[in-house]
């Protein structure tokens, strides 16, 4: 992504345009695309979002089932995470008219497209966790207590 006012990969000077507007060539400015991608990655890269998406990979779950399945998440954080994922179109929230009301969550087709990426990331972390933990121990041991952050 090219910073505003710099030269694009085609060698043409690209002037910054206001958010949501296209440049003279009908393209969004690179800086706006970059901002949008960063906002999306901030959500998708959030540990709670990844864990919720992973839990919904095989079936629809109720709020209480998700809360039990996602270890360490508070009810408030789960609520916020589910709202944001629904807002972005990655999951659906279905309220069933019953007493008490039953609410189900399921991945949308768009949300399901994340499963391969989330699984690959989880596999990578599983494969390299010991190596990373060893590196952390070595790094921490090499630092004097006075210089550690």
Structure description:
It is extended, with a radius of gyration of 21 Å. It is mainly α. The protein has helices spanning 30-44, 47-55, 63-69, 75-87, 109-112, 115-142, and strands spanning 61-62, 91-96, 102-107. The chain is built from six helices and three strands.
What strand order characterises the main sheet?
Answer: 1-3-2
> How much of the polypeptide forms β-strand, as a percent range?
5-15%
Strand elements, count? 3
Oligomer: single chain
Helix/strand/pairing class, anyone? Answer: mainly alpha
> Major β-sheet, in short?
3 strands, antiparallel
Q: Tell me the number of helical segments per DSSP (H or I, 4 or more residues long).
A: 6
| Low-pLDDT segments, ≥5 res | 1-17
Q: Per the principal axes of the C-alpha atoms, what is the gross shape?
A: extended
- What does the average pLDDT come to? 83
Percentage of residues in helical conformation: 40-55%
The succession of helices and strands, N to C, reads HHEHHEEHH
Rounded to the nearest angstrom, the distance between the terminal CA atoms is 32 Å
Calculate Rg over CA atoms: 21 Å
Short description:
With 149 residues, the protein is mainly α. The chain is built from 6 helices and 3 strands; from the N terminus they run ααβααββαα. It has helices at 30-44, 47-55, 63-69, 75-87, 109-112, 115-142, and strands at residues 61-62, 91-96, 102-107.
Helix-strand layout with pairing:
Layout: H1 30-44, H2 47-55, E1 61-62, H3 63-69, H4 75-87, E2 91-96, E3 102-107, H5 109-112, H6 115-142
């Amino acid at each position: 992504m090219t910073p505003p006012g710099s030269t694009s990969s085609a060698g043409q000077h690209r002037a910054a345009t206001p958010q949501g507007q296209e440049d003279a060539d009908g393209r969004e400015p690179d800086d706006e695309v970059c901002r949008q991608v960063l906002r999306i990655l901030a959500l998708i890269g959030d540990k709670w979002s990844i864990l919720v998406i992973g839990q919904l990979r095989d079936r629809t779950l109720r709020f209480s089932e998700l809360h039990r399945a996602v270890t360490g998440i508070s009810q408030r954080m789960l609520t916020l995470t589910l709202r944001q994922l629904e807002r972005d179109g990655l999951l659906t929230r279905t309220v069933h008219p019953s007493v008490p009301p039953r609410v189900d969550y399921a991945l949308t087709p768009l949300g399901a497209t994340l499963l391969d990426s989330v699984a690959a990331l989880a596999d990578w972390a599983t494969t390299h966790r010991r190596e990373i933990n060893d590196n952390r121990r070595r790094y921490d041991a090499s630092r004097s207590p006075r210089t550690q952050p």
